[in-house]
Design goal:
- The protein has 489 residues and is of the alpha/beta class.
- It folds into 3 domains: 247 residues, 3-Layer(aba) Sandwich (Rossmann fold); 130 residues, Magnesium chelatase subunit I, C-Terminal domain (Helicase, Ruva Protein, domain 3, Orthogonal Bundle); 98 residues, Orthogonal Bundle (Arc Repressor Mutant, subunit A).
- It is 43% helix and 13% strand.
- The protein contains 23 helices and 14 strands.
- The strands form 5 sheets. It has a 5-stranded parallel beta sheet, covered by helices on one side.
- β13 and β14 form a beta hairpin.
- The longest helix is centred in the middle third of the chain and has 21 residues.
- The radius of gyration is 31 Å and the shape is elongated.
- The termini are far apart.
Length: 489
């Protein structure tokens, strides 16, 4: 194995037996080795093992330029950045080169002059693979000069050269990324005339700058990302450009709750001081269920997608809701509750694009509607459907409903201490009996009791109201009667 620290000149490089490769061959060879050795190149990517990753590996084996097409929050940029792992750790360049000139195949006038005048004594630099990844966010103001290059009048004046001299060229992002992975995020935002400028580099592998006769046969792997919604809302990928991108790979959201929870646990920023906060497993599931409900809701624009960042932000807010309560009550530890989901709402309202009906309701009401749907789904995983009980079957919720029908009500302050919270739930007759036989740990019992109340309210068997800092549960019929009396008065 070549030790790059020992090779400082072109002559030493040739004697070492170093074999230069194109970047596509380099990535292909390293992927072949990784697959044979069962090495996981895409560590930290979950849910794509049988879909996206095989397609991506096939594209690399085929030496393709790649388009990752998918809705927001589907790990497109993360996938792109992980491709750096398929590059050699170090490659040699002509020292001082602006465009990572390969000493064996120099492109720039500077590198050619160095090799012509110094020959085997030409100084070699080694660049790490982390420096061979260039990422550009496509915006409408991007110019051809930015990404391809232009004549630099200051350089021409300083060096006293005419504009026809190749040495006055200022290279753009793409030439400077020679022998690298070049990523353009949100490709449809790039103006059509800028997209046209990519034709040559994708098809023939070269670029032309401001009418210069010189052609630079650059060595690049292009990876683009795009959102399908962008094809209609903000711009489009012009057809000739799509035709030149070899592989189009569709990304997607997690297909199951377990994968979604794994992603959230990996990405959520949890500080050391928050380690004494416990989130019951059922609440972790409920958090992810909100995203799943949003992706199928008639109030949410499904074409815009619901990012995985919703679950991540919601989880962080849930932890902070518990931490805030602990600080107010001077408690050293805390357990999350369903009532803490009031603090999760801001993480939902900014993460979903609403259709007309949703806009009429407003983002806050839509967030609560999604939470109620998630509550229903989670409730039915553990308890009988209250609307599908058989005629002769004993109503498992009868005692609970009778307790509220007896003019009882339950007021639960969001910031109540753990003791007050548990004592308030224990007031309700029938709750303990309902969950008694369930195989759950003691720390989860209060949360399951609270789930019963929220679930019955979601099925309109109890009345639930949020009054800023507290939830109030009352008998549904009793509440309707009070409203009727108010109307009569």
């Amino acid at each position: 194995m070549i030790n790059h620290k020992d090779i400082l000149t072109f002559g030493e490089l040739k004697k070492s037996g170093y074999q230069n490769k194109s970047i596509k061959d380099e990535m292909r060879d390293n992927l072949v080795l990784a697959l044979k050795n069962k090495q996981n190149i895409f560590e930290g990517i979950h849910g794509f093992d049988d879909t996206v990753i095989p397609d991506l590996e096939r594209a690399i084996l085929s030496r393709h330029h790649i388009l990752l097409l998918g809705l927001r929050g589907q790990a497109k940029t993360r996938l792109a950045r992980l491709l750096v792992r398929l590059l050699d750790e170090y490659i040699p360049i002509v020292a001082g080169s602006e465009i990572n000139d390969d000493p064996f195949h120099p492109l720039s006038p500077f590198a050619k002059e160095q090799l012509k005048s110094l020959g085997d004594q030409t100084t070699i630099d080694w660049i790490h693979r982390d420096r061979r990844y260039v990422e550009k966010l496509a915006t409408p103001d991007v110019s051809i000069a930015d990404i391809i290059g232009d004549v630099d009048p200051i350089k021409a004046a300083t060096l006293k050269l005419p504009y026809a001299d190749e040495r006055v060229i200022h290279y753009g992002l793409i030439p400077r990324a020679n022998r690298s992975i070049f990523v353009i995020n949100e490709l449809p935002d790039l103006q059509p005339r800028i997209q046209v400028s990519l034709f040559n580099i994708l098809q023939e592998g070269d670029i032309q700058i401001r009418g210069f006769k010189v052609r630079l046969p650059l060595d690049l792997l292009f990876l683009f990302t795009a959102n399908p919604e962008d094809y209609t809302n903000r711009g489009s990928i012009i057809t000739p450009l799509k035709d030149r991108i070899d592989s189009q790979i569709l990304t997607h959201y997690p297909n199951d709750l377990e994968t979604a929870m794994t992603i959230t646990a990996q990405e959520a920023r949890v500080r050391p001081e928050e380690k004494n906060i416990f989130i019951p497993p059922i609440l972790k599931v409920l958090l992810e269920q909100i995203s799943f409900e949003a992706r199928s809701s008639e109030l949410v624009d499904i074409n815009s997608g619901v990012s995985a960042r919703l679950g991540i932000s919601a989880y962080e807010n849930l932890i902070s809701a518990v931490e805030r309560r602990m600080l107010k009550n001077n408690e050293s530890s805390g357990v999350a509750r369903l009532s803490d989901f009031v603090g999760v709402m801001p993480a939902i309202t900014g993460k979903v694009e609403l259709v007309y009906e949703g806009e009429q309701l407003g983002p806050y009401k839509v967030a609560f509607e999604l939470l109620n749907k998630a509550l229903k789904t989670e409730f039915l995983k553990h308890f009988p459907h209250p609307e599908k009980l058989k005629k002769n079957e004993r109503d498992p919720y009868g005692v609970i409903k009778a307790w509220f029908a007896g003019e009882h009500e339950l007021k639960m302050a969001v910031d109540a201490t753990q003791q007050v919270y548990e004592e308030s739930l224990n007031q309700v007759s029938g709750l303990e009996r309902l969950i008694k036989a369930m195989p759950i740990v003691d720390t989860d019992r209060p949360v399951f009791k609270e789930l019963v109340l929220h679930g019955l309210a979601a099925f309109n068997l109890l009345n639930k109201e949020l009054h800023q800092t507290r939830f109030e549960f009352t008998d549904l019929l009793g509440d309707l009667g009070e409203k009727d009396e108010e109307v009569d008065d």
